[in-house]
Design goal:
Chain A: Residues 173-361 form the tRNA-guanine(15) transglycosylase-like domain. The complex is a heterodimer of chains A (362) and B (427). Chain A has 362 residues and is of the alpha/beta class. Chain A has helices at residues 78-88, 94-98, 141-151, 176-188, 207-210, 213-226, 241-249, 258-266, 307-310, 315-323, 328-353, and strands at 2-8, 14-23, 30-37, 39-43, 67-70, 107-110, 128-132, 135-139, 155-156, 195-196, 233-234, 254-256, 268-270, 274-275, 280-281, 285-287. In chain A, strands 9-6-5-4-12 form a five-stranded parallel sheet. In chain A, strands 1-2-3 form a three-stranded antiparallel sheet. In chain A, a hairpin with a 6-residue loop joins strand 2 and strand 3. Chain B is 41% helix and 17% strand. Chain B is α/β, with parallel strands linked by helices and 427 residues long. Classes of the chains: A alpha/beta (362), B alpha/beta (427).
Chain lengths: 362, 427
């Protein structure tokens, strides 16, 4: 994985490219897949985009973005993967093949799952606590290397202790001295291809409210001074659009789509985030569980190009499906919410390119 | 090119038999259902029968997009009037432009009358000549068409299906459990069902006459043969129904826990004197071996929750209908597809091992993958049946299936032996 800064914008925001070696899906010719940053990784659970069978990935409009493969929901597949690779002897191998995902989309393994709140106190010198079905697995560096060997991701996050809830003692979390020490040590590792900025929230669906940007900002800025500019900075978690904008302004290049999942699980439909007319950032959503939508036969948003809206699935129908606890509700909401979220990122990149991004911070 | 042997037509439905098995009562036919939609969504659908209809209880085939359902080869599904009537309610469906518009299903759809669910789901149901009085399990403070305590009459059941806008509607019948011991009650039920069919017909005709759009005229009302496990009752029911020249004929009151040999005997009796040029629909049957034998007795259409329900429990249908449990630990290292002969998206892209992991983690993607596969399984199985009839080898196909399920003749269950003997099949 490589990274190039394409354009430095105001404050610490920038446009860049994340580059991966890829094999063209049909011709099998080696090529380079390029993903513009700020970039949104496609969050997966057990190796699948939540609620979406791989056959439908083409309909997601997610720019074929790299997959985020969190460890907690995939660690228990490790042995199966080892034998899968052996059984297919190179014809098929790794998590992307095993999970039936598209072959030429890169994958990045993370240690934590954006949607699983860290169960505090389980990271010790033996390794970190990875909570899978059936309980805690202790994962150290050599176990992670084993996973990486079997999963064959294009990038992976090193083992790290990110158990730093806001009420943690000074030894963790918002301790500036510890942060800069970590940043300096990380910066010195020239063999890494990027940096995951971790520990400002403890993951889970409440991440957005946990991350107090006012407190985080000065620390983040100090770290950014220390870390090399030509390496991508990744901050994972279910973060709201407004927070993402502030983090981009502070120099973060890569995020993930788990926020869209959080909204879907609640039965909410995201509405268009950036109002291009006023260059305003909206965080509006429709609670489609609500009775008010029972006979609202319009689509979620009239000009939306997502699969759900284009095919005429109405607010009333999704309302009915949610009330009947039908799985299709979340399938339809995922299409819409992911599309809206990725469209938001595309708009961000365009605004950065046009030097209008700063207006969003007003 | 097979010539048409016999056919029937109405404004909304046409049916042509194109091949007879010769050794059994099985036949290969084409069923065309006209679109009801005024909008751009609907289309006329022609399907081949024998055919299986998956059940989309709540105006959705669990977890699957309409395009995915269609992708399995399915163009006719079933929705339950009782559930749809409860939520979102038939008036909401009507205001949406009908169920096709609401659920974005452009192909054909059949609704049941709501009668069966009332008897099986409701806390209390009392039948009178007027209709069925019951208490709904749905909560009290919702504004549903089907409310807490309600009398469902044949007229209402028909009107509800008009509002839902299904291509095929079922009469409200007097459904009682086949295991009901009272023969008298069974006899009452069959005659009452016929009277209720007449009432449904009147309601339907009136709606057709009053309807300027012509939409109701394209909806097709099927009567249901009843009679429990009594052959004479069944014959009476069939006689009365055939005399009324319906557009299609359903067989009900079976597949409710009765003994298999009684079941197949009643299917045989129910179809024996039906006109060849009308489609026959056996309600609530969907196991491959059951459908196979019922096709041999002349059934054209089936519906059942079984394939989609068993998918949600983690089972894939393979071969000629055996179940494979994906949850079993041995699946973790099984890198073959769910069914090695299947061409569905699940079998092409995924392994049993991966689906196993999804099911163990209760990931809904696992349910979707299994549902899609199981529906495709049903479609492929029915295709095999049709191909066998077309090629004149249906009896051999039955033999293959029996060998697959039971091994050799000594192991055949009684109902199979009985059926073979009645059909005079040499298998």
């Amino acid at each position: 994985m490589k990274f190039m800064v394409r354009k430095e914008c105001l404050n610490r925001s920038r446009l860049g490219s994340l580059l991966f070696d890829a094999l063209h899906n049909e011709t099998n010719v080696k090529t380079t897949a390029e993903y513009p940053t700020p970039l949104c990784l496609q969050y997966t659970m057990n190796g699948s985009v939540p609620h979406i069978v791989s056959d439908l990935l083409d309909q997601l409009n997610d720019d074929n973005s790299p997959f985020l493969i969190p460890l907690p929901t995939t660690y228990l597949m490790n042995e199966s993967l080892r034998q899968f690779n052996s059984a297919f002897n190179g014809v098929k191998s790794g998590i992307v093949d095993f999970a039936g995902l598209k072959k030429w989309r890169p994958s990045i393994v993370s240690v934590y799952d954006p949607l699983l709140a860290i169960n505090g106190g389980h990271n010790t010198v033996e390794g970190i606590g990875v909570f899978c079905r059936g309980g805690k697995q202790t994962v150290n560096s050599s176990k992670l290397i084993d996973v990486v060997t079997n999963f064959k991701p294009d990038a992976y996050q090193a083992i790290c202790d990110s158990d730093t809830p806001s009420n943690a003692s000074n030894k963790r979390g918002l301790n500036p001295r510890a942060r800069t020490k970590s940043a300096k040590e990380s910066a010195a590792k020239t063999l890494v291809d990027g940096f995951v900025i971790d520990g400002f929230h403890a993951y889970g669906s409440q991440s957005d409210t946990q991350l107090d940007f006012v407190s985080v900002k000065p620390i983040l800025h100090e770290i950014m001074e220390i870390l090399p500019k030509d390496k991508p900075k990744i901050l994972l978690g279910a973060l709201s659009p407004k927070l993402i904008i502030k983090l981009i302004d502070s120099g973060i290049d890569v995020f993930d789509s788990s926020y869209a999942s959080v909204m879907t699980e609640k039965g909410f439909a995201l509405q268009e985030v950036i109002d291009v007319n006023g260059l305003k950032v909206k965080e509006n959503s429709l609670d489609l569980n609500s009775k008010q939508f029972k006979e609202d036969f319009g689509v979620i948003e009239t000009h939306c190009q997502c699969y759900t809206c284009v095919n005429g699935f109405s607010r009333a129908y999704i309302n009915h499906l949610l009330n009947a606890s039908e799985m299709l509700a979340k399938v339809l909401l995922m299409f819409h919410n992911l599309h809206t979220f990725y469209h938001f990122f595309a708009q961000i990149r365009r605004l950065l390119d046009e030097d209008s991004f700063q207006q969003l911070l007003r | 090119m097979l010539k048409v042997l016999t056919k029937s037509m109405s404004k909304g439905l046409s049916f042509e038999v194109v091949a007879d098995c010769g050794q059994t009562r099985a036949r290969l036919s084409k069923l065309t259902l006209k679109s009801l939609s005024d909008g751009s969504l609907g289309r006329d659908v022609t399907i081949e029968t024998p055919m299986f209809m998956p059940v989309g209880t709540n105006a959705t085939i669990k977890g699957l997009l309409p395009a995915q359902v269609e992708g399995t080869g399915c163009q006719l599904i079933l929705a339950n009037t009782y559930h749809v009537g409860s939520r979102p309610g038939v008036d909401t469906v009507d205001r949406a432009g009908g169920i096709h518009e609401l659920m974005r299903w452009p192909n054909a759809l059949l609704t049941d009358s709501g009668g069966f669910q009332m008897v099986s789901l409701s806390k209390l149901s009392e039948v009178s000549e007027n209709g069925v009085l019951f208490k709904s399990p749905y909560d009290k403070d919702s504004t549903h068409t089907v409310s807490d305590e309600m009398l469902l009459t044949p007229e209402m059941a028909t009107q509800m299906q008009h509002k839902i806008g299904s291509n095929i509607m079922m009469q409200l019948d007097d459904v009682i459990k086949t295991t009901h011991p009272d023969e008298q009650r069974m006899e009452t039920a069959l005659h009452r069902s016929i009277r209720w069919y007449d009432r449904c017909r009147v309601t339907h005709s009136k709606a057709v006459a009053d309807d300027k759009t012509g939409r109701h005229a394209r909806q097709n009302l099927f009567p249901i043969i009843q009679g429990g496990l009594n052959p004479e009752f069944r014959r009476q029911s069939a006689r009365e129904i055939v005399a009324r020249d319906p557009v299609g004929i359903a067989i009900g009151g079976l597949s409710g826990g009765e003994a298999k040999d009684k079941f197949i005997e009643m299917v045989a009796v129910s179809t024996e004197s039906l006109p060849a040029n009308k489609p026959r629909y056996l309600m609530g049957v969907g196991l491959a071996i059951d459908m196979l034998m019922c096709v041999a007795f002349g059934v054209d259409l089936f519906d059942c929750v079984y394939p989609t329900r068993t998918a949600r429990f983690g089972c894939a249908l393979v071969g000629y209908g055996k179940e494979v449990s994906l949850r079993s630990t041995s699946m973790a290292l099984d890198f073959t597809p769910l069914d090695s002969e299947c061409d569905c998206n699940t079998c092409v892209k995924y392994t049993r091992s991966y689906v196993h992991h999804l099911m163990r983690d209760k990931n809904t993607v696992g349910c979707h993958l299994l549902s899609e596969h199981n529906i495709r399984f049903q479609m492929r199985f029915m295709q095999k049946i049709r191909d066998a009839i077309r090629d004149g080898v249906f009896a051999e196909f039955i033999a293959d299936n029996l060998r697959y399920h039971f091994g050799d003749r000594d192991n055949y269950p009684q109902w199979i032996s009985q059926a073979i003997s009645q059909l005079k099949l040499d298998v």
